[in-house]
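Predict structure. Input: Transcription initiation factor TFIID subunit 11, 193 residues.
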Amino acid sequence: MDQAEESSLGDKGEKAGESEEMTTGQHRGNREETDGDRDADKEAASEEGKLKSQDVWDLTALKKNLKIDTKEKKEKKQKVDEDEIQKMQILVSSFSEEQLNHYEMYRRSAFPKAVIKRLIQSITGTTVSQNVVIAMSGIPKVFIGEVVEEALDVCEKWGEMPPLQPKHMREAVQRLKLKGQIPNSKHKKIIIF
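Output follows.
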């Protein structure tokens, strides 16, 4: 038994010695790996810092370009607006007295916003903002303008003189429907069995 114990102790002793060396070697290796990892982490962090600074520089350049583009767009829009205003002034100054009265009436005409708001809310079932009401009240005004313009063309083609009569308006609406500018108000429901 003593020999068996010694052999097992010897084995254990060698194993214990090996395990100490292995453990020490592993620790040394881990320290070296850890130092290598730290170096790699530092390099990665410095590269990341460079990339971040590059990204910041790119974003700054992008913002400057956007500001320049925005300024250019504003300048172009302002120039276009000024041109439009100037053209309208020239046009209005060339109006006769009757045309000027008609233009003023057109500019002053509007559908009641309260009625338009109520109509939209009854259709959608939700409340709508004032901007939506303003936009939607402009649409019927444009529609009526198109119908009246077409009615004037009808009146001229028929060899009649204004004022417009209901027959001119009906014919104008009919022609606009044929052109596809007015949707069909009578929907035919298709039932599929």
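Confidence is low (pLDDT under 50) at residues 1-33.
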